[in-house]
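User: What would this chain look like folded?
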Amino acid sequence: MGSQVLSVRVDGELLERIRQHAAKRGMSVQDYVVRTLIREDFDERFHSSLDKSEKLGFPKPAT
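Assistant: Here's the prediction, encoded as structure tokens.
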């Protein structure tokens, strides 16, 4: 899979908070943002799958 560029304009305070979160994890800002987006995408797809399973008659697992 090739990579592409995404440019995002963010407030200075938000960027500083993102830098701090990334630094706590020993990550670059780019890696931190990409991993956050991947995690959010996974969560969304996972919950969608649970909803579809429930519609088919399977109960939702206890969380």
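Residues 33 and 39 are 10 Å apart (CA to CA). If you want, I can go into more detail on any region.
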